[in-house]
Amino acid sequence: MNPIDEPPHSLADTREMLDAYLDYYRSVVLHKLDGLSENELRTSRLPSGWSPLELLHHLTHVERRWLRWGFLGEPVESPWGDRGPDDRWHVPDDMSPAETRARFEEQCAWSRRAVAHVPLDRRAPVGGRFATEADAPTLGWILFHLLQEYARHAGQLDVVRELADGTVGE
Asked: InterPro entries from the entry (predicted)?
């Protein structure tokens, strides 16, 4: 696996840094999946039972839930579509790894465009995901929440990848 460059140390603007680190971790997640067979992508090596492909599908829905349904208040079909009947992460059997990855990349591109140039202190509207103004976070809070979600899941994928084929690191 080739290392992915962390955003430059020269970044000082909070928004630029946040956007750069979100993209960095989005890339890290994809990079950790590169080279795994379809069987490895669909197989869990963990007691909790999730597979790398299910994690990627989950992150697609996380972006949709927090930005489209949450921050913009848009209606979203199946906001919890990453969950199966047992309330665990799930990827439909007929969804290929390539399609799962393409949907993730499309959602990330949409997310970037949707929040570009939007001030971090802007609050999500009531409706959509949030029922009251007290529930509605700022864009800054949502983006930092997404960042921690990506960082946590990238770390989990470190372990999964090492168990799958011994690969460690970025």
From this structure: DinB/YfiT-like (IPR034660), MST-like (IPR007061)
